[in-house]
Amino acid sequence: MLATLPSELLGIVIGQTVSRRDLKHLCEVCKRLHDIVTPHLYRSLILSAPELSLKDLVAILETIPSKYLKYTQDFGFSVPIHERVESRCVHHSSNEPFIDETLQDGLAKYLTNGGNMGSEDLDDADKCSVDLVQFRDLRSLAWKGLNRYNDFESVRECMEVHGHQIQSLTLDLLTWDRAEEIWAYGFLHQTLQRAKVPDNFFSERVLNIHPRDRKVTFSSLENLHLSAVSFYHAAMEMAHAFNIERLNSLKLRNCPGSLHWLQMILDSRKPMKLKSLELALDLNSLQRDTRVHITETICNFIYHVPSLESLYLMLPEPIDWTALTERLSTHCQLKRFVMHHLVDRGGQNLIDGDIL
Questions:
Q1: Would the pTM count as exceeding 0.85?
Q2: Sign of torsion, CA 88 91 93 95?
């Protein structure tokens, strides 16, 4: 009965199937179902290996026919986390990296070369980058943990070619200071002549934004999620580049200058149609003079975005709870509000306060 449905309707039904085992069984029913189900089966690949071993992961990848890998949109891998916790847990005191850079570079080499890798490739690991330009229909990019100069170069090349069609963008630099050091180190080693490191390397060298630019790089962008990305020295230029008026969802987590950025957007009177806003601020992402204006800026921003339905805040003191709740009570469209309160106990050491 299922095989008698039109292909379009059958594709919709199969698209709702979550179980990979069920998809595999459907592939084995008949050739017609095999052809329709295969793209769904290989759309997301999670590889399991006994260790974070490049050799093991590549061996697994090589067992998958290349004609099926063309359907893959999401790629990940899993390992037994209970072993060698000290070198895997990002919260552990060990200085060992969570993922060995040789493994990361090797996987980049493998994916960039379409699944071809030799033993000599590991010698060029530090020169390897992921080629995102080859994905011509790319609409969504999420990269958490950019930690090499070549990572930023990959993003830069991708944005130059595909920026206009990206609808969802998630970039996590972990910490701005560390990302800036990594990029500057790689940049100075790549540059033959002595060159000045830009004030904001991400805006100028990754997004190719320059002072007083008003160009729109991401004309199709709807969802923007940034972590540890600085807005200093290019605030309004980045607002234009991200096409802030079009955004439906905005997440800013510990981004230096983000509160000042929101204030500049308010001052520019740009209309916005945001439905969801998530703002997390630590002391490192706030200037001393802007910290005292947290409540005022957020209240004004909420008033400026009448379409806002979901609001998630993680803020340090001082917060004027009365002013904030009064502003929220007059917002007709707001359906969800979560407030995580951070308390400073001295030495810029924030601890959890309350979740409201």
A1: no
A2: positive
